[in-house]
Design goal:
Layout: E1 3-5, H1 10-22, E2 27-34, E3 37-48, E4 53-54, E5 61-62, H2 67-80, H3 90-93, H4 104-108, H5 123-128, H6 130-138, H7 155-168, H8 172-184, E6 188-190, H9 230-235, H10 247-251, E7 259-261, H11 263-274, H12 281-287, E8 292-295, E9 302-305, E10 310-311, E11 324-327, E12 333-337, E13 342-348, H13 359-371
Antiparallel strand pairs: 1-3, 2-3, 2-13, 3-4, 5-7, 6-7, 8-9, 9-10, 11-12, 12-13
Helix pairs in contact: 1-13, 2-7
Length: 372
């Protein structure tokens, strides 16, 4: 596989190659930093199966919800600068929001009760931004804010992004580029410039059978196929579904889902968090400590939530008591493990269902074996 591997980390290269041979990988990249030093930087496969364009060192990949941690970092960057107060009402910064009981903090912890919209927006309205934030400003909470956490699959990005825009005067993607990714020379974007579209890999999404009768499924799975459930309403806040292969959507800003970057850019982001170049150590410690835990109202599974960062449960393959990050739909993953000085980024274009996807797990296990 093209790239570099530091001595001792050859098992990661083996695991990466094995994912192509045995786990249906099409195109992918993985990058690992340890104590600020890059020890793994690999890529391979096909970026676009339609044209057979190869995956190269600078291929970019949409990472879906792995984007959310980077969006959260933009808001926290403003907190660090004293421009944003986590405990102030959102309406102090966004007067049209009109829900004075909701502080900024609850946007980051998915406790605002705004996981879905009574009237979903169209992809064109999502691209335009203003119709979505107007709908969220008018939306009544779907549960009492602050009492439960429910995954804001799409709306998280618009809620946090609008606060960043109101405070900074810049869109979230612009703020990210000017304040974080450009200074740190990270190849990661929210709102991909047209000049970079030629580098983007084509997403190959897993098949989803929405014709299944929910009544025939186990109770725990039914909400994922019932269009009236909060689970499905949250995932269908934009209807019909977004297509992040669409150049219009690549260029737009969807701060929950369409972050686009290299594995090196993703791992470099977490390395920058660990060494204090993005957030102060004090704020990072607070943001990556458990704020909420329990069964998520939308996902219906146990979760641990920081301030915009996901915290793995003990049964998850990337778990460490201090680990934080975010996985993405289809398999991408970015995370840091401070106890090991580890920053990890994995991106791929072949989306798979989590239950049968071992690719990221194989890589993380190989990294940890190399470290031990």
């Amino acid at each position: 596989m093209p790239g570099t591997t530091a001595p001792g980390f050859e098992p990661v290269q083996d695991a990466f190659a094995d994912n192509f041979e045995h786990h249906d990988e099409i195109g992918a990249a993985v990058c690992v930093y340890v104590d600020g030093k890059k020890v793994v930087d690999l890529w391979g496969g096909v970026a676009d199966p339609q044209t057979e364009r190869p995956w190269t060192e600078d291929t970019l990949q949409v990472v879906f919800s792995t984007t959310k941690a980077i969006t959260a970092a933009c808001a926290l960057h403003l907190v660090d600068r004293g421009l944003l107060d986590l405990d102030a009402p959102v309406a102090d910064y966004w007067p049209e929001f009109g829900k004075p009981e909701i502080p900024v903090r609850w946007l980051l912890t998915h406790q605002a009760g705004l996981a879905a919209l009574d009237k979903p927006v169209t992809p064109a309205e999502a691209v335009a931004w203003e119709p979505v934030v107007a709908a969220l400003a008018a939306q009544q909470p779907l549960w009492e804010p602050g009492t439960e956490s429910g995954y804001h699959a799409h709306t998280f990005g618009w809620l946090v992004g609008e606060v960043v825009r109101r405070v900074s005067g810049r869109t979230l993607g612009t703020y990210l580029r000017e304040e974080i990714t450009a200074p740190l020379e990270l190849d990661f974007w929210i709102g991909l410039p047209e000049s970079e579209h030629h580098r983007a890999a084509r997403i190959v999404s897993p098949a989803i059978d929405l014709s299944v009768d929910p009544a025939t499924l186990p109770e725990a799975v039914r909400p994922y196929f019932d269009p009236t459930s909060l689970t499905m309403r949250a995932s269908m806040a934009v209807t019909p579904f977004l297509d992040h292969n669409d150049p219009v959507e690549l260029a737009a800003e969807f701060p929950s889902t369409n972050g686009c970057g290299t594995a090196r850019g993703l791992a470099g982001f977490y390395a920058g968090l660990l060494d204090g170049r993005i957030l102060s150590p004090e704020l990072l410690s607070m943001a990556t400590s458990e704020q909420v835990s329990g069964v998520d109202k939308v996902l219906r599974v146990p979760v641990r939530v920081g301030l915009g960062f996901g915290l793995p449960n003990p049964d998850e393959f990337w778990y460490d008591p201090t680990a934080f990050g975010f996985p993405g739909y289809g398999g991408s993953l970015g995370f840091a493990d401070p106890s090991r000085g580890l920053a990890f980024g994995y991106v791929m274009n072949h989306g798979k269902h989590a239950a049968d996807d071992r690719r990221a797990a194989n890589l993380v296990e190989a990294v940890r074996a190399a470290l031990s």
